[in-house]
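Complex record, two chains
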Amino acid sequence: MSYHSQSYAPSAPPAPDPNGSGYPYPPAPTNYYGHTSYGSHGQSDFPPGTHPEVIRSFQMVDRDRSGFIDESELQLALSSGYQRFSLGTIRLLMFLFKNPRDSLRIRPKEFAALWSCLGQWRAIFERFDRDRSGKIDSMELRDALYSLGYAIPPSVLQVLISRYDDGSGRRVELNFDSFVECGMIVKGLTEKFKEKDPRYTGSATLTYDTFMSMIIPFLVA
Amino acid sequence: MSYHSQSYAPSAPPAPDPNGSGYPYPPAPTNYYGHTSYGSHGQSDFPPGTHPEVIRSFQMVDRDRSGFIDESELQLALSSGYQRFSLGTIRLLMFLFKNPRDSLRIRPKEFAALWSCLGQWRAIFERFDRDRSGKIDSMELRDALYSLGYAIPPSVLQVLISRYDDGSGRRVELNFDSFVECGMIVKGLTEKFKEKDPRYTGSATLTYDTFMSMIIPFLVA
Protein backbone atom coordinates (compact mmCIF):
# COMPACT_ATOMS: atom_id res chain seq x y z
CA MET A 1 0.00 0.00 0.00
CA SER A 2 1.72 3.14 -1.12
CA TYR A 3 0.63 6.54 0.06
CA HIS A 4 0.55 9.63 -2.10
CA SER A 5 1.69 12.33 0.25
CA GLN A 6 1.23 14.89 -2.55
CA SER A 7 -2.45 15.02 -1.65
CA TYR A 8 -1.50 16.78 1.59
CA ALA A 9 -0.24 20.31 1.87
CA PRO A 10 2.45 20.88 -0.74
CA SER A 11 4.97 21.77 1.96
CA ALA A 12 4.61 18.38 3.64
CA PRO A 13 7.55 16.02 3.22
CA PRO A 14 6.92 12.45 2.07
CA ALA A 15 5.10 10.41 4.70
CA PRO A 16 6.97 7.45 6.14
CA ASP A 17 5.77 4.20 4.61
CA PRO A 18 4.02 2.30 7.44
CA ASN A 19 4.81 -1.01 5.79
CA GLY A 20 8.40 -0.24 4.89
CA SER A 21 11.12 -2.11 6.71
CA GLY A 22 12.60 1.07 8.16
CA TYR A 23 9.38 2.33 9.75
CA PRO A 24 9.70 2.83 13.48
CA TYR A 25 6.26 1.43 14.33
CA PRO A 26 5.75 -1.25 15.56
CA PRO A 27 9.05 -1.13 17.44
CA ALA A 28 11.85 -2.71 15.50
CA PRO A 29 13.63 -5.50 17.37
CA THR A 30 16.95 -3.74 16.84
CA ASN A 31 17.54 -0.43 15.24
CA TYR A 32 17.92 0.40 11.60
CA TYR A 33 21.68 0.23 11.42
CA GLY A 34 22.05 -2.80 13.64
CA HIS A 35 23.56 -0.94 16.60
CA THR A 36 21.93 0.84 19.48
CA SER A 37 20.99 4.51 19.31
CA TYR A 38 22.96 5.06 22.47
CA GLY A 39 26.19 3.94 20.84
CA SER A 40 25.90 6.23 17.84
CA HIS A 41 24.57 9.31 19.60
CA GLY A 42 26.51 9.57 22.83
CA GLN A 43 24.51 10.24 25.99
CA SER A 44 21.19 9.92 24.20
CA ASP A 45 17.98 9.54 26.16
CA PHE A 46 16.27 7.63 23.37
CA PRO A 47 15.13 4.10 24.15
CA PRO A 48 17.31 1.35 22.63
CA GLY A 49 16.20 0.51 19.11
CA THR A 50 14.86 3.97 18.31
CA HIS A 51 14.88 4.57 14.58
CA PRO A 52 17.67 6.94 13.50
CA GLU A 53 15.14 9.10 11.63
CA VAL A 54 13.36 9.81 14.92
CA ILE A 55 16.63 10.75 16.61
CA ARG A 56 17.70 12.87 13.64
CA SER A 57 14.37 14.73 13.66
CA PHE A 58 14.69 15.51 17.34
CA GLN A 59 18.34 16.54 17.16
CA MET A 60 17.72 18.69 14.11
CA VAL A 61 15.67 21.07 16.29
CA ASP A 62 17.40 20.52 19.64
CA ARG A 63 20.48 22.38 18.48
CA ASP A 64 21.91 23.03 21.94
CA ARG A 65 21.46 19.33 22.84
CA SER A 66 19.52 20.36 25.94
CA GLY A 67 17.45 17.20 25.64
CA PHE A 68 14.19 19.16 25.45
CA ILE A 69 12.19 20.67 22.64
CA ASP A 70 9.40 23.21 22.87
CA GLU A 71 6.17 23.68 20.90
CA SER A 72 7.51 25.27 17.76
CA GLU A 73 10.49 22.91 17.72
CA LEU A 74 8.13 19.94 18.00
CA GLN A 75 6.17 21.31 15.07
CA LEU A 76 9.36 21.45 13.01
CA ALA A 77 10.67 18.07 14.18
CA LEU A 78 7.46 16.23 13.24
CA SER A 79 7.38 17.92 9.86
CA SER A 80 10.38 15.86 8.78
CA GLY A 81 8.49 12.59 9.19
CA TYR A 82 4.86 13.58 8.84
CA GLN A 83 3.72 17.06 7.93
CA ARG A 84 3.52 20.50 9.43
CA PHE A 85 0.79 20.16 12.06
CA SER A 86 -1.20 23.20 13.16
CA LEU A 87 -0.13 24.75 16.45
CA GLY A 88 -3.45 23.64 17.98
CA THR A 89 -2.67 20.01 17.20
CA ILE A 90 0.94 20.42 18.37
CA ARG A 91 -0.23 21.80 21.72
CA LEU A 92 -2.59 18.91 22.20
CA LEU A 93 0.13 16.39 21.32
CA MET A 94 2.57 18.06 23.68
CA PHE A 95 0.01 18.11 26.49
CA LEU A 96 -0.79 14.42 25.99
CA PHE A 97 2.76 13.12 25.57
CA LYS A 98 4.93 15.30 27.80
CA ASN A 99 5.78 14.29 31.34
CA PRO A 100 3.02 15.79 33.55
CA ARG A 101 5.68 17.26 35.85
CA ASP A 102 7.41 19.09 33.01
CA SER A 103 6.37 22.45 31.68
CA LEU A 104 5.66 22.66 27.97
CA ARG A 105 8.53 20.61 26.63
CA ILE A 106 9.18 17.15 25.24
CA ARG A 107 12.04 14.77 26.04
CA PRO A 108 13.54 12.20 23.63
CA LYS A 109 11.67 9.24 25.14
CA GLU A 110 8.34 11.05 24.82
CA PHE A 111 9.20 12.18 21.30
CA ALA A 112 9.88 8.58 20.27
CA ALA A 113 6.53 7.50 21.77
CA LEU A 114 4.71 10.29 19.96
CA TRP A 115 6.40 9.45 16.66
CA SER A 116 5.38 5.80 16.99
CA CYS A 117 1.81 6.72 17.86
CA LEU A 118 1.57 9.02 14.83
CA GLY A 119 2.91 6.19 12.65
CA GLN A 120 0.12 3.94 13.82
CA TRP A 121 -2.47 6.67 13.27
CA ARG A 122 -1.12 7.42 9.81
CA ALA A 123 -1.58 3.77 8.90
CA ILE A 124 -5.17 3.82 10.20
CA PHE A 125 -5.87 7.08 8.38
CA GLU A 126 -4.58 5.66 5.11
CA ARG A 127 -6.61 2.51 5.52
CA PHE A 128 -9.84 4.53 5.83
CA ASP A 129 -8.91 7.09 3.17
CA ARG A 130 -9.92 4.60 0.53
CA ASP A 131 -9.78 6.94 -2.45
CA ARG A 132 -6.35 8.31 -1.41
CA SER A 133 -7.73 11.85 -1.38
CA GLY A 134 -5.80 12.71 1.78
CA LYS A 135 -9.13 13.25 3.55
CA ILE A 136 -11.67 11.17 5.44
CA ASP A 137 -15.34 11.91 6.13
CA SER A 138 -17.32 11.56 9.36
CA MET A 139 -18.26 7.90 8.85
CA GLU A 140 -14.66 7.03 8.04
CA LEU A 141 -13.59 8.97 11.13
CA ARG A 142 -16.00 6.91 13.21
CA ASP A 143 -14.60 3.66 11.77
CA ALA A 144 -11.01 4.85 12.17
CA LEU A 145 -11.56 5.79 15.82
CA TYR A 146 -13.32 2.48 16.38
CA SER A 147 -10.32 0.61 14.96
CA LEU A 148 -8.15 2.56 17.43
CA GLY A 149 -10.40 1.26 20.21
CA TYR A 150 -12.70 4.26 20.69
CA ALA A 151 -16.45 3.80 20.24
CA ILE A 152 -17.90 7.28 20.49
CA PRO A 153 -21.63 8.10 20.50
CA PRO A 154 -23.04 9.53 17.23
CA SER A 155 -23.99 12.79 18.98
CA VAL A 156 -20.40 13.26 20.13
CA LEU A 157 -19.09 12.46 16.66
CA GLN A 158 -21.40 15.05 15.18
CA VAL A 159 -20.18 17.78 17.54
CA LEU A 160 -16.58 16.74 17.05
CA ILE A 161 -16.75 16.96 13.28
CA SER A 162 -18.65 20.27 13.36
CA ARG A 163 -15.32 21.86 14.29
CA TYR A 164 -14.19 21.33 10.71
CA ASP A 165 -17.40 22.47 9.04
CA ASP A 166 -16.61 25.57 6.99
CA GLY A 167 -20.30 26.43 6.66
CA SER A 168 -20.28 25.92 2.89
CA GLY A 169 -22.80 23.09 3.12
CA ARG A 170 -20.30 20.65 1.66
CA ARG A 171 -19.68 17.29 3.35
CA VAL A 172 -17.11 17.74 6.12
CA GLU A 173 -13.79 16.02 5.48
CA LEU A 174 -10.71 15.83 7.68
CA ASN A 175 -7.09 15.88 6.61
CA PHE A 176 -4.47 14.02 8.64
CA ASP A 177 -3.80 17.02 10.90
CA SER A 178 -7.49 17.31 11.84
CA PHE A 179 -7.79 13.54 12.19
CA VAL A 180 -4.91 13.55 14.68
CA GLU A 181 -6.48 16.45 16.56
CA CYS A 182 -9.90 14.73 16.77
CA GLY A 183 -8.37 11.39 17.66
CA MET A 184 -6.13 12.85 20.34
CA ILE A 185 -9.08 14.67 21.95
CA VAL A 186 -11.01 11.39 22.07
CA LYS A 187 -7.99 9.38 23.24
CA GLY A 188 -7.03 11.91 25.90
CA LEU A 189 -10.53 12.37 27.35
CA THR A 190 -11.17 8.62 27.29
CA GLU A 191 -7.95 7.93 29.18
CA LYS A 192 -8.82 10.58 31.76
CA PHE A 193 -12.24 9.00 32.21
CA LYS A 194 -10.78 5.49 32.53
CA GLU A 195 -8.49 6.69 35.33
CA LYS A 196 -11.66 7.44 37.30
CA ASP A 197 -13.36 4.23 36.21
CA PRO A 198 -10.60 1.67 36.82
CA ARG A 199 -12.98 -1.30 36.74
CA TYR A 200 -14.49 -0.22 33.39
CA THR A 201 -18.07 0.00 34.63
CA GLY A 202 -18.84 2.73 32.08
CA SER A 203 -19.54 5.36 34.70
CA ALA A 204 -17.45 7.41 37.11
CA THR A 205 -18.09 9.63 40.11
CA LEU A 206 -16.19 12.90 39.98
CA THR A 207 -15.90 15.81 42.36
CA TYR A 208 -16.23 19.31 40.91
CA ASP A 209 -12.50 19.95 41.39
CA THR A 210 -11.56 16.69 39.68
CA PHE A 211 -13.95 17.38 36.82
CA MET A 212 -12.53 20.85 36.22
CA SER A 213 -8.93 19.69 36.56
CA MET A 214 -9.50 16.88 34.08
CA ILE A 215 -10.98 19.03 31.36
CA ILE A 216 -9.39 22.45 31.44
CA PRO A 217 -5.99 21.23 30.21
CA PHE A 218 -7.73 20.10 27.00
CA LEU A 219 -9.28 23.51 26.56
CA VAL A 220 -6.02 25.35 26.92
CA ALA A 221 -4.02 22.88 24.85
CA MET B 1 -15.46 55.36 38.17
CA SER B 2 -14.57 56.12 34.61
CA TYR B 3 -12.94 53.57 32.37
CA HIS B 4 -10.20 54.36 29.92
CA SER B 5 -10.97 52.17 27.00
CA GLN B 6 -7.87 53.47 25.21
CA SER B 7 -5.86 50.94 27.16
CA TYR B 8 -7.46 48.20 25.05
CA ALA B 9 -6.75 47.55 21.41
CA PRO B 10 -6.76 50.81 19.49
CA SER B 11 -9.53 49.56 17.23
CA ALA B 12 -11.89 48.98 20.14
CA PRO B 13 -14.81 51.40 20.41
CA PRO B 14 -15.42 53.13 23.74
CA ALA B 15 -16.69 50.71 26.37
CA PRO B 16 -20.15 51.35 27.76
CA ASP B 17 -19.97 52.98 31.17
CA PRO B 18 -21.32 50.41 33.65
CA ASN B 19 -22.49 53.14 36.00
CA GLY B 20 -23.95 55.41 33.36
CA SER B 21 -27.71 55.77 33.29
CA GLY B 22 -27.94 54.36 29.78
CA TYR B 23 -26.13 51.11 30.53
CA PRO B 24 -28.23 48.07 29.77
CA TYR B 25 -27.16 46.06 32.80
CA PRO B 26 -28.76 45.51 35.26
CA PRO B 27 -32.03 45.50 33.30
CA ALA B 28 -33.62 48.91 33.20
CA PRO B 29 -37.20 48.99 34.52
CA THR B 30 -38.35 50.54 31.25
CA ASN B 31 -36.29 51.17 28.21
CA TYR B 32 -34.08 54.12 27.49
CA TYR B 33 -36.58 56.17 25.58
CA GLY B 34 -39.51 55.34 27.77
CA HIS B 35 -41.30 53.15 25.25
CA THR B 36 -40.97 49.45 24.54
CA SER B 37 -38.51 48.13 22.00
CA TYR B 38 -41.39 46.37 20.31
CA GLY B 39 -43.13 49.65 19.54
CA SER B 40 -40.15 51.29 17.93
CA HIS B 41 -38.82 48.30 16.03
CA GLY B 42 -41.84 46.53 14.60
CA GLN B 43 -42.00 42.76 14.99
CA SER B 44 -38.91 42.65 17.16
CA ASP B 45 -38.05 39.56 19.13
CA PHE B 46 -36.23 41.55 21.78
CA PRO B 47 -37.57 41.35 25.32
CA PRO B 48 -39.50 44.43 26.48
CA GLY B 49 -37.15 47.02 27.93
CA THR B 50 -34.16 46.04 25.81
CA HIS B 51 -31.78 48.96 25.48
CA PRO B 52 -31.90 50.54 21.98
CA GLU B 53 -28.13 50.22 21.68
CA VAL B 54 -28.44 46.44 21.96
CA ILE B 55 -31.13 46.38 19.28
CA ARG B 56 -29.15 48.73 17.05
CA SER B 57 -26.04 46.56 17.36
CA PHE B 58 -27.97 43.46 16.39
CA GLN B 59 -29.82 45.09 13.51
CA MET B 60 -26.65 46.69 12.19
CA VAL B 61 -25.37 43.22 11.27
CA ASP B 62 -28.68 41.45 10.62
CA ARG B 63 -29.21 43.37 7.40
CA ASP B 64 -31.81 41.02 5.93
CA ARG B 65 -33.77 41.13 9.21
CA SER B 66 -33.75 37.34 9.31
CA GLY B 67 -33.72 37.48 13.10
CA PHE B 68 -30.49 35.49 13.29
CA ILE B 69 -26.83 36.38 13.28
CA ASP B 70 -23.86 34.10 12.73
CA GLU B 71 -20.36 34.00 14.20
CA SER B 72 -18.72 36.77 12.26
CA GLU B 73 -21.84 38.95 12.57
CA LEU B 74 -21.83 38.42 16.33
CA GLN B 75 -18.19 39.48 16.40
CA LEU B 76 -19.11 42.69 14.59
CA ALA B 77 -22.26 43.34 16.63
CA LEU B 78 -20.47 43.08 19.97
CA SER B 79 -17.68 45.33 18.76
CA SER B 80 -20.06 48.29 18.83
CA GLY B 81 -20.60 47.97 22.59
CA TYR B 82 -17.50 46.19 23.82
CA GLN B 83 -14.56 45.39 21.58
CA ARG B 84 -13.61 43.06 18.79
CA PHE B 85 -13.44 39.66 20.49
CA SER B 86 -11.26 36.92 19.03
CA LEU B 87 -13.10 34.28 17.01
CA GLY B 88 -12.28 31.72 19.72
CA THR B 89 -14.11 33.79 22.33
CA ILE B 90 -16.99 34.47 19.93
CA ARG B 91 -17.44 30.74 19.28
CA LEU B 92 -17.50 30.03 22.98
CA LEU B 93 -20.05 32.81 23.58
CA MET B 94 -22.22 31.55 20.75
CA PHE B 95 -22.07 27.99 22.01
CA LEU B 96 -23.02 29.08 25.54
CA PHE B 97 -25.79 31.53 24.65
CA LYS B 98 -27.46 30.12 21.55
CA ASN B 99 -30.51 27.92 21.77
CA PRO B 100 -29.19 24.33 21.98
CA ARG B 101 -31.57 23.32 19.20
CA ASP B 102 -30.24 25.96 16.83
CA SER B 103 -27.19 25.58 14.68
CA LEU B 104 -24.50 28.22 15.06
CA ARG B 105 -26.69 31.32 15.20
CA ILE B 106 -27.97 33.76 17.77
CA ARG B 107 -31.48 35.19 18.12
CA PRO B 108 -32.35 38.65 19.49
CA LYS B 109 -33.38 37.36 22.93
CA GLU B 110 -30.10 35.48 23.30
CA PHE B 111 -28.14 38.45 22.03
CA ALA B 112 -29.74 40.66 24.68
CA ALA B 113 -28.86 38.11 27.39
CA LEU B 114 -25.28 37.90 26.15
CA TRP B 115 -24.94 41.69 26.04
CA SER B 116 -26.19 41.98 29.61
CA CYS B 117 -23.85 39.26 30.81
CA LEU B 118 -20.88 40.96 29.16
CA GLY B 119 -21.89 44.22 30.83
CA GLN B 120 -21.76 42.56 34.22
CA TRP B 121 -18.41 40.96 33.41
CA ARG B 122 -17.00 44.25 32.18
CA ALA B 123 -17.93 45.86 35.49
CA ILE B 124 -16.23 43.01 37.39
CA PHE B 125 -13.17 43.23 35.16
CA GLU B 126 -12.86 46.96 35.75
CA ARG B 127 -13.24 46.53 39.48
CA PHE B 128 -10.29 44.13 39.59
CA ASP B 129 -8.18 46.02 37.07
CA ARG B 130 -7.18 48.44 39.81
CA ASP B 131 -4.45 50.26 37.93
CA ARG B 132 -6.67 50.69 34.84
CA SER B 133 -4.10 48.97 32.65
CA GLY B 134 -6.77 47.07 30.75
CA LYS B 135 -5.29 43.82 32.09
CA ILE B 136 -5.67 41.64 35.15
CA ASP B 137 -3.24 39.06 36.56
CA SER B 138 -3.92 35.55 37.84
CA MET B 139 -4.76 36.56 41.41
CA GLU B 140 -7.13 39.24 40.14
CA LEU B 141 -8.67 36.65 37.80
CA ARG B 142 -9.21 34.36 40.78
CA ASP B 143 -10.89 37.16 42.74
CA ALA B 144 -12.95 38.24 39.74
CA LEU B 145 -14.20 34.70 39.13
CA TYR B 146 -14.92 34.35 42.82
CA SER B 147 -17.02 37.49 42.75
CA LEU B 148 -18.95 35.96 39.83
CA GLY B 149 -19.64 32.95 42.05
CA TYR B 150 -16.94 30.56 40.83
CA ALA B 151 -14.39 29.26 43.34
CA ILE B 152 -11.89 27.34 41.24
CA PRO B 153 -9.00 25.27 42.65
CA PRO B 154 -5.52 26.87 42.39
CA SER B 155 -4.31 24.02 40.15
CA VAL B 156 -7.13 24.68 37.71
CA LEU B 157 -6.44 28.41 37.78
CA GLN B 158 -2.81 27.75 36.97
CA VAL B 159 -3.63 25.61 33.94
CA LEU B 160 -6.27 28.08 32.80
CA ILE B 161 -3.93 31.03 32.86
CA SER B 162 -1.10 29.08 31.20
CA ARG B 163 -3.08 29.48 27.97
CA TYR B 164 -2.08 33.13 27.94
CA ASP B 165 1.57 32.61 28.85
CA ASP B 166 3.69 33.79 25.94
CA GLY B 167 6.77 32.02 27.31
CA SER B 168 8.62 35.30 27.85
CA GLY B 169 8.84 34.69 31.59
CA ARG B 170 6.79 37.81 32.28
CA ARG B 171 3.82 37.69 34.63
CA VAL B 172 0.76 36.52 32.72
CA GLU B 173 -1.94 39.16 32.33
CA LEU B 174 -5.35 38.93 30.67
CA ASN B 175 -7.13 41.54 28.65
CA PHE B 176 -10.94 41.70 28.64
CA ASP B 177 -11.23 39.29 25.69
CA SER B 178 -9.14 36.63 27.48
CA PHE B 179 -10.95 37.29 30.75
CA VAL B 180 -14.29 36.63 29.03
CA GLU B 181 -12.91 33.48 27.43
CA CYS B 182 -11.56 32.15 30.76
CA GLY B 183 -14.68 33.10 32.62
CA MET B 184 -17.01 31.58 30.06
CA ILE B 185 -15.08 28.29 30.14
CA VAL B 186 -15.42 28.19 33.93
CA LYS B 187 -19.07 29.28 33.84
CA GLY B 188 -20.00 26.81 31.09
CA LEU B 189 -18.27 23.80 32.62
CA THR B 190 -19.61 24.61 36.08
CA GLU B 191 -23.16 24.82 34.76
CA LYS B 192 -22.76 21.50 32.94
CA PHE B 193 -21.51 19.93 36.16
CA LYS B 194 -24.35 21.39 38.22
CA GLU B 195 -26.88 19.85 35.83
CA LYS B 196 -25.52 16.46 36.89
CA ASP B 197 -25.33 17.47 40.56
CA PRO B 198 -28.74 19.07 41.09
CA ARG B 199 -28.54 18.84 44.88
CA TYR B 200 -25.12 20.54 44.98
CA THR B 201 -23.32 17.72 46.76
CA GLY B 202 -20.05 18.65 45.05
CA SER B 203 -19.78 15.38 43.16
CA ALA B 204 -21.56 13.82 40.20
CA THR B 205 -21.74 10.38 38.61
CA LEU B 206 -21.36 10.45 34.86
CA THR B 207 -21.47 7.78 32.19
CA TYR B 208 -18.75 7.81 29.55
CA ASP B 209 -21.18 9.03 26.88
CA THR B 210 -22.45 11.84 29.12
CA PHE B 211 -18.91 12.85 30.02
CA MET B 212 -17.82 13.02 26.39
CA SER B 213 -21.00 14.82 25.29
CA MET B 214 -20.59 17.42 28.04
CA ILE B 215 -17.03 18.31 27.21
CA ILE B 216 -16.47 18.03 23.49
CA PRO B 217 -18.64 21.06 22.62
CA PHE B 218 -16.22 23.18 24.67
CA LEU B 219 -13.28 21.79 22.76
CA VAL B 220 -14.76 22.53 19.39
CA ALA B 221 -16.15 25.93 20.35
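Note: The radius of gyration of chain B is 18 Å.
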